[in-house]
Amino acid sequence: MIGALITVLFLAAVLYLAYRHLPLLSFTAAFTVLLLAYSAFGNAAEIWRGLLWLLLLCFWLLNLRPLRIALISAPFMKAYRRLLPSMSDTERDALEAGTVWWDGELFTGNPDWARLRAAPPPQLTAQEQAFLDGPCETLCGMLDDFDITHRRLDLPPAVWDYLKAQRFFAMIIPRQYGGLQFSTYAHSCVLVKLAARSVTCASTVAVPNSLGPAELLLHYGTEEQKNHYLPRLAQGLEIPCFALTGPRAGSDAASIPDTGVVCRGVWEGRELLGIRLNFSKRYITLAPIATVVGLAFRMFDPDHLIGEKVDIGITCALIPRDTAGIEIGRRHFPLNIAFLNGPVRGRDVFVPLDCIIGGLKQAGLGWRMLVEQLSVGRCISLPANATGGALAATFATGAYARIRRQFNTPVGRFEGVEQVIARMVGLTYIMDAARSVTTAAIDAGEKPAVPAAILKYHVTEMGRRVANDAMDVHGGKGIMLGPNNYLGRPYQSVPIAITVEGANILTRSLIIFGQGAIRCHPFVLREMNAARDSDHRRGVEEFDLALFAHMGFAISNAVRSLIMAVTLSRFESVPVTGPTRRYYQHIERFSASFAFATDVAMLTLGGYLKKKETISARLGDVLSALYLSSMVLKHHDNRGRPAEELPVVEWACRELLYQAQEQLHSVLRNFPNRPIAWLARLLMFPRGLTYFAPADALGRSVAELVLSDSETRRSLSRLLYRSDVPDNPLAALQTVLEKADVAEPLEKRLRVEGQKTGRVSALDLGGQIEEARALGILSEQEAQFLADYDRRVMAIIEVDDFAADELGLAHG
Description:
Radius of gyration: 31 Å
Largest sheet: 7 strands, mixed
Number of helices: 32
Strand content: 5-15%
Oligomer: single chain
Helix content: 55-70%
C-alpha cells in the first residue's frame, strides 16, 4: 500500500514538473532527484525502475546539444524542409504584418494576465468628448435615414457641407495638416454613434478615415505628397476613394490583374517617364464623387527604364480624377443603402512616377503597405459600424418588448422572447468590449493583425445575429419600411459588413487561425525561419533550440490540459478574486487545450492543414472565443466592475467558452487521424463535455436589464443619439419605457377592478380608461397619464403606408 502511494506521489510530482513547463535541463535535474528518492523509498518492480532510469538517461543525453543535433534535430530539419509549404512574397507580407498581442498569449496555453490587465483602458480626451457631444450630436440631428435611403439616395447637401466643415473626414490626419488627430478609440466611437443613426453616413465617414489615401500617405507618402494632399483632404477640398477590388480579384486581392507599365509619355505638356495604367475596379466607396483616386495595380518595367526587374509588383498610386482615360461617376446600389459606391475604370491612363505613394522607392511594395494598414483598419470601421447598429437595435428592442403587449403581457416577459433579448444584450456587450479594448491596444502602440481578423469576422457576424433577433422581436413593425421603421435599413445593410474587407467565410477559414498559428505560436515561425536559413549551421542550431522548446511546450500543454480538465481548473492561479475568477480559470484551461490541439494538428497534418479549412476554421473559432472572453473581462475591469452588469459578463463568458468547448469537440470529432483524435480527447476531455451554455435563469436576469431603465441599459446607450426630438425613435422609446413602470400598475388595476369584474365593458383602451375614470377606478390624473402613455405607445407601434406613386409604382 505504501509502495503504491509512493508511486502515485512520484507520478504526481513528475506531472507537476511538466505542468509548470520547466526548461529541459531543470526538468531533467528535478526528475533525477525525484527518481533517486523514489528508488530509495519505493518498492516498484525492477522492470519499471529500469525503464525510469533508461528514461532519465535519455533526458540527460538530450541535454547534450551536439549529440541531439546530430541524431535528432538535423535529420528532422531535413524532413521538415520537405514538408514545409511554399510561401509567396504576398503570403509572407501578410504573415509579417502587424504585431502579436494578447492573441500570442492565448497560443502559449498559459496566458500572462498581468500583460492584459496592465493595458491602459480606453479614454477620450476633452477634445474628443467635445466632438462626440457637439458636432456628432448635431450631425445626428441632421440625418433623416428614410429620406436619405428612399428619396434622395444620398446625404443632403447640408450634411455634406457639415461633414467637410467639421472635418469628419480628417479624424486620422494630424493637426499639423489641419486634421483632428483623434485616437483610434475616439475614431471608433464616432463611427459607433453615426452607425446607430445612419449606416449611409457612417460608411461615408468611415472610408476617408480607413484604408485609403490619407492612411497610406501618413505612413508611406513623400513629404511633398503629404504637404499637398493631407491639408486638402482635411478641409474636404479633396474627396478620396481607394480602388483595390476588381471583377476578377475580390478577397484574393493579391492577384489583381490591373497593370501599370513604365514608359515615356506626356503629362501637362511635358514628356517624362511615367506609368501607363489599365484597370477595372468595382465596389469602390465614394468613387462617384471622388476627386482623387487611390489605386492598387501591378507594375511592370519591360524596357528596364527604372531598373533590371520587369515585374516590380503591386504598387499604390494617387491619381487626380480628371486624368485623361479615367471613367468614373456611375453608381452601384448596395442593398438600398445610399452611400456612394461605384466602379472605376481606366484605359491607357498615363501618370508620372511621382504619383506612386511614397515615390519610386515604394514601387512594388503596395501589398505590404495594404496589409500593414489592414492589420489596424479591420479593428475600426466595420466593428464600429456593426457595434453601433447592435447597440441601437438592442436598446430599441428592450424598450419595444416592454411596451408592446400581447395577451395582457409585455412580449419581453415571454420566455422565448426573453432568451432572444438576453442573447442580443450578451452579444452586444461582447462586440462593444472587443471594440473598446482592442482599439485601446492600438492607441498603446499595438498593430494586432490576428485580433483585427477576429473582430472583422465575429463582430460583424454577431451584428447579423442581433439584427435578426431584433427583427424577430419587432415582427411586422420591423418589416414595413418607412419613416417609422428604425430597423429595416440597418437590417438590409448587414451583408455589406459581412462581405467587404475580406469575405467572412474566407476570414474564418483561412486568416484567423492560418495567420495566427504561424505568427502567434511561440515556436513555429522560429522553426520555419531556421529551416529556410541559407546558413545551414546557424539554421540547424536555431532549429534545434526551437524544436526542443516546442516539444516541451507541447508536452506541458497536454499535461496542463488534462489536469485542468480533471479539476475543472479550480486550482489554477489567476490574478483576480470575486465573481469573475472562474472565467479567468476556464480561459486558462481552454487556452492549454487549444495550444495542445494546435500542435497536434500541425504535427500530424503539416502543410495539409492549410487545405483542411474546416479544422482551421474551428481552431480559429476557439482562439476567437478565448480572445473575446478575455476582452469581456478586461472591459468589465476597465469599467470598475459594476455589480449590476455581472449577469451580462457571466452570460457573455459562458456563451463564448461553451463555444470554445464545442469547437474543440468538433475538431476532434472530424480529425482525419482517428487514433490521435482519441488520445487528444482523453487529454482534453477526460470527464466528457463539462462546460455548459448560459442557463435560462441567467438569460432572464440579462434581459431584465434592458427591459427596464437600468444602469446597464444606460451604459449600453452611452454613444447613442438620444436627444428628445420628434424624429428620434430611440428617444421616443426611452421616454415610453421610463413611463412603463408607472403605467403597468394602472393597467393592471384597470384589468382587475374593471374588466374582470365586468364594470368596464369597452373594447378599446381609450374607452376603458374613460369608463374607469368615471367609476373612480382611476383618478383624473391617472387616467390622463395612462391615455398619454397609450398615445405614445401607439405612435411607436404605428407603421407607415404609402400611395402607389410615392413608392414609384403604377396604380392598378
